[in-house]
Amino acid sequence: SPTPQTASRPTTLAVANQKGGVAKTTSVASLGAALAELGHSVLLVDLDPQACLTFSLGIDPEDIEISIHHVLTKGTHASEVIIETDDGVDLLPATIELARAEADLLTRTGREHVLKAALADLAEQVEYDWVLLDCPPSLGVLTVAALTAADGVLIPLQCETLSHRGVGQLLDTVHDVRRFTNRDLEVWGVLPTLYDGRTNHARTVLETISDTYELDVIEPPIPKTIKFAEAPAAGRSILATSRTSKGARAYREAAANLVERSRRASGKRR
Ligand code: ADP
Ligand code: MG
């Protein structure tokens, strides 16, 4: 596929928030599909033992023999595990086996770097423009490995039920990662999700959080819409199941903004 970016290596983003249900997985699937529509080559990595991303892309984790778990703990080359999906993106799938990875990696030297190393090995064979990492709802080894492998982090936030403490903890982890394992990690910003624009409350919460933590906001907010409930069961993202819905359009626009940002970032790197 075409490589419209000028960067010689992929832009790798960790989509992280230790809170569950804030649309991490939905955002990874939807932004991935939107980037693919723009002609970019995309790899999505499922780092959650619940394997919701894998399932939502039409793959039954129970049908898979090897998964990201083997890449992280057994040295299997990622290219042996990657699956092409109907959404036009490649997937490094997860299964429930990944639940053991945390324990398996705990005694391993360099565990924070296993994903980074696996993606570097992969890059020698396959060139992606984007690698999006779907983090589990915790700040454990897998999330730290994702932040270590990433150029940037996106923080999906549900503006209604937002807990400041959670964001602070995540940013503390980012700070530690910068200090110990990945100096160049940048926070790209918060992605407002499940956004109900009819309430002033949502906008106020969003402004408060971006001011308090000096975080950029990735525009536009992703509206809350029932359409998202239908997509995972169809094995496709909302961009395919509900092409012209508000939600699909918002993710397309957000993806275009990420492309802009990545062009600026790769300009700086050079
Ligand atoms: P996480 O990965 O952070 O746990 P998910 O992406 O799995 O979150 O989303 C949690 C739930 O919210 C899912 O049922 C998903 O379909 C739903 N959802 C995600 N985004 C939206 C949205 N914009 N509007 C309505 N429902 C959404
Ligand atoms: Mg998830």
Automatic annotation (TrEMBL):
<protein>
    <submittedName>
        <fullName>ParA family protein</fullName>
    </submittedName>
</protein>
<comment type="similarity">
    <text>Belongs to the ParA family.</text>
</comment>
<dbReference type="InterPro" id="IPR025669">
    <property type="entry name" value="AAA_dom"/>
</dbReference>
<feature type="domain" description="AAA">
    <location>
        <begin position="12"/>
        <end position="187"/>
    </location>
</feature>
<comment type="function">
    <text>May play a role in septum formation.</text>
</comment>
<dbReference type="InterPro" id="IPR050678">
    <property type="entry name" value="DNA_Partitioning_ATPase"/>
</dbReference>
<dbReference type="InterPro" id="IPR027417">
    <property type="entry name" value="P-loop_NTPase"/>
</dbReference>
<dbReference type="Pfam" id="PF13614">
    <property type="entry name" value="AAA_31"/>
</dbReference>
